[in-house]
Amino acid sequence: MRELNATADSLQRQHNAIDELNQQLHHSQLDEAQTKAFLDTVIEHIPNPISVKAPHGPTSDPLDWTFSLVNKAYETLSGHTRAQMIGQSARNLYPNQTAAIIAASDRQALESTTAVITPELSLSTTDNGTCIVTSKRVAIRDRDGAAQYVLTVLEDVTDTRRSEARISHMAHHDPLTDLPNRAAFNSSMTSALQDAEARHEQFTILSIDLDRFKEINDVYGHAVGDVLLQEVALRMQASARGAFIARIGGDEFIAIVTGGVQPEQAEIVGKSLLAAFVDDFIIDSKRIQIGLSIGGAVYPTDGADGKTLMINADAALYQAKAALGVSILFFKPEMGARLQERHNLQRDLKVAIEHGDLSLQYQPQFLMTGEPIGFEALARWNCLDRGMVPPDTFIQIAEECGLIMPLGAWALREACREAASWKAPLAVAVNVSPMQFLQGNLAQLVHTILLETGLAPARLELEITEGVFINDFSRAVSILRQLKSLGVRISLDDFGKGYSSLSYLHSFPFDKIKIDRAFILDIEQNHHSMIIVRAVIGLGHSLNIPILAEGVENEAQRKFLEQAGCSAVQGYLLGRPAPIKKYKELVGPSFTLDDNTLGIAS
Ligand code: C2E
Ligand code: CA
Ligand code: CA
User: Which one, of 157, 109, 101, lies nearest residue 137 by Cα?
Assistant: First the structure.
């Protein structure tokens, strides 16, 4: 009985142990299934495309290995579903070239004991076009080292590469026209110089500028100006005959013409560019005519480095722009001399302004009745070395180099100081350059000068031209309003000379319009001038703005203006610009006029 009991106990224990083992076994099977499901989920959701390939038959070529696992990302990348891929080789799924690349990479992994990284390759896919991928591959081996699988993890770098390409494109192209920009031009210039030097060849750079672009931009607005530039860029590129074209500024372009005999080759390109601008542009159903001016400089004759070539091409461009009816010019050494002369003029003008060597002359203005109303102050530069330099010349130079700011401030201060000293409360008209509207604070300057000199604001008249509106219309109007609120009067000078004067009359309530002297000059011979002058006077009447005619040289002109109903006149007939001393009787005795009597230096 005891024996039996012992055996039964032992059996029970064994039974329990077996039960336990059984349970353990069941659990571990469950674990394995769970683990597999878990890993599958992980692989499925990894954002990188993943594939596993297995050999198809014992000695098969990697080209024939077939897919045994792919994840979701791989499906998306390849454009195939897993049902289409599992059991298929790359050869069946991809174009020949791509399949060969995949097999070569797999082979590499099979021959290696570590992971193999394949550099970027383009993968032609069914739905996604060409993708750029990098991959990491590893061969999974059995105990004997025989490869059982190749695991591939891909990285799709298409977007990264595309945005890198976009960024690099943006760094080298102008966003408006998509032409190469200045940075791209600089590197092209560097390689053109290197190539030409190495091969003992010539090349030409063409400096290209649109004629009157600023006016067009102003008249039609920036939106039209922008579209025009885009169209211009298209025409240029289409007609450049393969030359490199860049946009380096607002309306400034540059071409590099390499190969062939220069400048003949560049001349062909230049003429082709010019021909492309013969037809009008039609933008926003507006017909716009725009021309080009081109200046060229040839390496190495006109410059052995980029900077010299640019300066000389610009010098040629400058001459081309200045000469009527000439659109393309190549650099000649005399042009450099002329440019040098301008530099010298700038230098001397700077000294003249600093030393107070400029003076003002005054030209009287009269009502038609003969009653004096005021004087226009005109700047004069009597240079020791050059004699009298015409104001048209030195004002332009001052505008080019920024000296117009001190010059303009001086003219204002000097004219106000002078007028404040007159007994007769006549007006003084001072010319203000458009540049003075763009830089500094003109209204503040005028205000300060009025306070300093004590001149009644109503006696100061500022003569502006429509050029004031060209660069920044709303800024100009706002400055004009500030000036007007000081009590200063504003007149529109050189009326009729510009591009579209009428539009500006709406923008601001001018106190006077000055008809350009070109119309008065030939009023007796030129029927058109006569009609224009009559029309402007009529316009003045209807807008209630007085019209002053300038450049009146003879009695016939004056008579015509009187009959046409003109309000005021200025010109050699009634008085030339002269030092104020000459007009003593008009302004009345003053302490600054006759310094001897009062002992005050003028
Ligand atoms: P503007 O403002 O049109 O000045 C009138 C010009 O016509 C002056 O030339 C004057 O001498 C000239 N003129 C006056 N009456 C007659 C005439 O009967 N017949 C002819 N043929 N000409 C006459 P100027 O003094 O040579 O000045 C030329 C230009 O220089 C001025 O044209 C003005 O634009 C500019 N300018 C002169 N002084 C200044 C200044 O202080 N500041 C600025 N920004 N510009 C100035
Ligand atoms: Ca003037
Ligand atoms: Ca004028």
Answer: 109
DSSP code string of 355-411: HT-EEEEEEEEEETTS-EEEEEEEEEEEETTTEEEPHHHHHHHHHHHTTHHHHHHHH
Lowest mean pLDDT among 121-125, 221-225, 350-354, 447-451: 121-125
Number of structural domains (the chain) is: 3
Is the minimum distance from the CB of 522 to ligand 1 under 6 angstroms?
no
Tokens read off for 429:
């008209």
The answer to whether position 100 is within a domain reads yes
Predicted pLDDT of residue 122: 81
Residue 224 in contact with residue 286, Cβ under 8 Å?
yes
pLDDT computed for residue 324 by the predictor: 64
**Do residue 154 and residue 98 come from a single domain?**
yes
Distance, in Å, from the CA atom of 180 to the CA atom of 248, rounded to the nearest integer, reads: 8
Quick one: 375 and 519 in the same domain? yes
Tell how far the Cα of 23 is from the centroid of ligand 1, in angstroms: 113
Work out the average pLDDT over 516-525. 92
394 near 341, Cβ under 8 Å?
no
- Give pLDDT tens digits for 385-402: 899 999 999 998 898 788
Question: Amino acid identity, residue 335?
Answer: M
Of 125-139, 442-456, 508-522, where does mean pLDDT reach its minimum?
Answer: 125-139
Mean pLDDT over residues 500-509, rounded?
Answer: 78
Same domain, 483 and 514: yes
The arithmetic mean of pLDDT across residues 80-103, rounded, is 89
Task: Among 161, 184, 207, give the residue marking a domain's end.
Answer: 161
> Does residue 567 belong to any structural domain of this protein?
yes
Ligand 1 binding pocket mutation candidate from 431, 553, 574 (most atoms within 8 A of CB)? 431
**Cα-to-centroid distance, 15 and ligand 2 (Å):** 122
Q: What is the 378 CA–ligand 1 centroid distance (Å)?
A: 6
Q: Which domain holds residue 91?
A: 50-161
Between the CA of 589 and the centroid of ligand 2 the distance, in Å, is: 26
Q: 49-62 pLDDT, tens per residue?
A: 999 999 876 656 88
From 360, 362, 378, 521, give the residue whose CB has the most ligand 1 atoms within 8 Å, as the site to mutate.
378
Looking at the structure, do residues 575 and 434 belong to the same domain, yes or no?
yes
pLDDT at 595 over 50: no
Q: How many CB atoms lie within 10 A of CB 496?
A: 18
Does residue 201 surpass a pLDDT of 70?
yes
Q: Which of 277, 303, 331 is the last residue of a domain?
A: 331
Identify which ligand lies nearest to the alpha carbon of 515: 3
> Does residue 560 lie within any of the structural domains?
yes
Pair (561, 427) in one structural domain:
yes
pLDDT at 537 (0 to 100): 95
Report whether residue 391 contacts ligand 1, using a CB cutoff of 6 Å: yes
